[in-house]
Fold these 4 entries.
Entry 1:
Amino acid sequence: MPVHESSPVPTHREKRRKKMERIDDEIGTENGKAETAIVEDIDQDSSLTPNGGSIAGFESLHRLLYASLSPQVFQRLSMTRNSARFLVRVCFPGISTEITPNVLTVEYVLYQEVKRLLLGLNCGRAVEPINLPDPAKALSAKHDFDLQAFSFHADKEVLRGPQIVRVGLIQNSIALPTTAPFSDQKRAIFEKLRPIIDAAGAAGVNILCLQEAWTMPFAFCTREKRWCEFAEPVDGESTQFIQDLARKYNMVIISPILERDVKHGETLWNTAVIIGNRGNIIGKHRKNHIPRVGDFNESTYYMEGNTGHPVFETAYGKIAVNICYGRHHPLNWLAFGLNGAEIVFNPSATVGELSEPMWPIEARNAAIANSYFVASINRVGTEIFPNPFTSGDGKPQHADFGHFYGSSHFSAPDASCTPSLSRYRDGLIISDMDLNLCRQLKDKWGFRMTARYELYADMLSRYVQPDFEPHIIADPLLHK
């Protein structure tokens, strides 16, 4: 498990995490290990249910739901009455769990309905798995990373052929403890990612995105300035590493780094470098919104972005990058859509206690509201830092930011989405997308035509003025 620290006696929380990691791995394997043992394992340990404070069971259920089980296969799972109650508790809190005698029928109906609600339907059917080439599978097995692949369809059109692009996302933990020399840490993460990028190349990925600040630990929580040493120019060491791989695999690669802007007084930025399939630098985007919550402390290190909302026209489609905290801002998503994005990537570094309940909702909503695909990436693991720090919340000092929960996935404009990668393992998730779906959903819902942008442009132009007064109509009898 990607936790870099000394080896203390495992806590109950760590034991529970290891157990769920094993469960999650078994559900995610392509050879379909016995779900019976998995479900019974969850049943027998109440600490793994949502009522026990862990949503790992939900994520495992999420992937189990994708198995497209038939009634016959479902019956072979030998799911117990408690299993059916677990399904109801997770997905329909507040509903009675007094299951009728025909447990199998109830479970199967619940399974189908929950699957439809959680994953949606793509052109009337579930998102379909892709059988990847053997070399990609071999790399996954050899280097022990999660590998998943799914396909989004669009309706057949008369005047346009399909516009299919294969997209990949990589999530990973750091490669060495944070106490290792910085040069060793960076070199180790390059070597760790190389076989995963090789697997993407072997699978024929056209556009690949890495996680936020992939070249370093997410050390901004510490407020220690020494981590600034990981910053580099846009054409620096990590970009050169990625450029070689982009050329090798004819692949567009999005590389989010901590940028050092030498031409502007060594200013630091949180930047996504967009590298073309010929190894050229197409452009860059700097993070628009910096959090002021929890342990992020990112304003200690870098500035709010000044690049606006650019869309990059690549050999495979029009893409944009909404870095991490920008996903909490609907207007940020909107601006990328207005500029014509077909796929918006959201490379992130976020922890479970803070944001996990919002993780799938925000991405799916953005895809629906803006009629484009959303690709969500989050790092994995728990990163332990040499010097404990406080959070300004009165709680004791600690040496870790929390658990980065991975769960990278794709969302489509028709409200369908893929299952996520593991919460614990490095991984590569791949999706085939027919970009025709973007215009088809614009035609279907007409959001652009009903948006009334002039109303909000006027409102916002007034709101940003220092003498703004809210438009509130008070009841004249309110204070009588």
Entry 2:
Amino acid sequence: DLYNNQLTGSIPAELGNLGKLMYL
């Protein structure tokens, strides 16, 4: 979901805040 997160700009639920940090 991390790679998908960066591509879509959405925050996967399983990543939560961590996903937001990685996306930013």
Entry 3:
Amino acid sequence: MKKTYLPRRNALLTVRELSWGARAVLLVCAVALVRFALPNVFMQIAAPFLGVSASVARASHAVINSFSSTAEQAAENERLREENVALVAENARLTKQSSQSVVETNVSTTGASRGVVAQVVARPPVGPYDTLVLDQGQSAGVSDGMEVFSSGGVPLGVVTGTTSDFSRAVLFSSPDVQTAGWAGERSVPVTITGRGGGVLVAVLPRSANIMVGDFIYVPGPGMLPIGVVARVDGDATSPAVTLRIRPLSNLFSLGSVELRTTGVGQSVEFASSTAP
């Protein structure tokens, strides 16, 4: 009787398994040989990729940190803007003083004194346009007629009403409010008229030769910059031009102001007729 032979099932390795094992042994030997012959080759290969990864991580971390707080970023931008406004106003004031006599300069600087610092409770567009409600009143020494300045020292308006703990200030840009001042390097007398929403205008003879970029000043003491000429309107045949004035301070982002008694008798006067 013929016997049937079956494959041994207890064989440890098949031919295919032996070939894969041999390949693995050869790969390990090859890696070991390369590492022995060139010990830093793998690090040299990986170094560029590791450097790129580290750079991306640093850049991502910097971006995340810089925008970690939207409120902090906005506050920082506003602080830098206020510092820039203060520098522009101070530069304009010093430029004007340099063109005056020593006596005028002394008068303009000795009158400046610290006043009452007040936080803005309501401002445009939350409160009435071109009006500020402040958190200091009669108990802090605030009285009608005190002039209002931004944190950068730019004149804004005049206190027109007070209570024990609060006060109200009308800004120079309030509709039809008229303020006496000067325009340009030659200090041409001008009447500044508010148009609301932070807009100021003034009408001057064309012969005054006031140009875009010239500063507009008001008493403060001395001559303090309030804005800059943004546009000059007028027909070529007209003897007068209208100055469109951009305030130096952003009225819509005021956080605090300073109230001072300047001694110049600044008051709010309303125009009887509307200028162009």
Entry 4:
Amino acid sequence: MKITIHNGILDLKPGMFARGEVILSVHKDVPVIPKDTIKTNDGKQYVYIVDNLHAAEREISSGPAMGGLIEIVKGLTPGEKVIYSGTVKKGDLLKIISEE
């Protein structure tokens, strides 16, 4: 990639460098969750969600990642509660202590 930067007031000096990102697209109303929330089994990705105060498995498909977060393109809708920490298995009764 090549860019042109106008340096009319000579703020940029030889040897300086910059780092940036190019945003190719913006997705709205798409769930984004921490990467380490995703489990893998037999090549399939899934997360645990809260379903009527019980843990349930939900198969997902992930998309682009940035930092520690990853976009979910299939399997979750915005606002669904994903279990982030703790050890749970399918069907466990849950007590919600934080909804952050």
